[in-house]
Amino acid sequence: KxxxxxxxxxxxxxxxELAVTITQTRKxxxxxxxxxSKERERVEKLxxxxxxxxxxxxxxxxxxIEDGERSMLAEAEASLQQKEERRAKLAQCKQxxxxxxxxxxxxxxxxxxxxxxxxxxxxxxxxxxQNELSFxxxxxxxCAVKDVLSDACxxxxxHLLGKEVDGLIFQExxxxxxxxxxxxxxxxxxxxxxxxxxxxxWPGVAFVIDLDSDTADKFIQLFGTKGAKRVLCPIPxxxxxxxxxxxxxxxGENLMNRGNYYWEVELIxxxxxxxxxxxxxxxxxxxxxGRLGRNEKxxxxxxxxxxxxAWFGGFESVIQQPFFHTIGVFLEYSEKAxxxxxxxxxxxxxxxxxxxxxFKKGQFDAFQNKINCRFPSLFSYNLKAAFFLxxxxxxxxxxPLKKDCVSVLKRR
Length: 412
Description:
Blueprint: H1 2-98, H2 105-120, H3 138-160, H4 168-175, E1 220-223, E2 227-230, E3 249-251, E4 260-269, E5 272-278, H5 287-290, E6 298-303, E7 308-312, E8 315-319, E9 326-332, E10 337-344, E11 347-354, H6 366-374, E12 383-389, E13 395-398, H7 403-410
Antiparallel strand pairs: 1-2, 2-13, 3-12, 4-9, 4-13, 5-6, 5-12, 6-7, 7-8, 9-10, 10-11
Helix pairs in contact: 1-2
């Protein structure tokens, strides 16, 4: 009987404990359901807000394109109409002059004077579309937003799953280095709350290049701040002491003076040179001295239609590599090194590295000797990205960075 009573007592205790546990578990279930419901509501609200932000951005971009199109077409159509009217008037005056009898000197002089006046009439300047054509950078801006959004979604999903995150954007967000377009500071360093002027050391390599319209030669047509093409008709840019006048060159407006920097350029057409230059270089140098790599204050990688060629101080080094549409440029300021890569499918092929290097016994190379003697002196200056559009059809675009390439260089 004692054992039976003890056993029943144990069972009763167990039942009471289970009852308590069941009550607690029920409360936990209700708590989980309530928390999940509230979290779902918050997520749905945030997604709705994000959709509104994207919809607003889409409306703004489409409106920006439409405004740019209207502005450009209005000027172009007005110019076209004026030229057609002038052509018709000149043709009529020419016809009238040809129809004058050879014996009627007075009538001939009258028609000749009318033709002369028509020819001397001043035309309005040819339309310059560099401002209106800025709408052509819209797709690039939307692509950048899409890439950032895609990377952020993937990385945050991995973060939710507890996976190790190795994405560039998420890493930069975590480190406070990432900032959206329009908030980059001078020299490409992002502003942060702790350093609003961006003067701290920037450990990243992804570098934002914006073309400086105040340096562009008059035969270079700019498309926003990312595209450049050499044209036959000069563009009436305003006079600037920083503007190249003898070479079809343009500079990036961002300074480089410490840390590591990486950017990529798409070679769309023609002969193009890509490199760096000191910020004190005289843009009014003669053509022979002013070209990238033909002096000791600049260097470049040139595509001449057949080969890549590295230039520095007037010395050249021909590179035996196939053509790459995308060229990556990696500047290591502290290492005093500049490396050019051919980029394809996020894979990098080293085309040429400019850096002091000892000769092997019995070997001598004039180009490397020039690098050894004078190249390090470049790094005593602030540097800028530089571009030389050599042929009349030359066309380049500063491309969006391949994240895989940036991640590889960032880990170095």
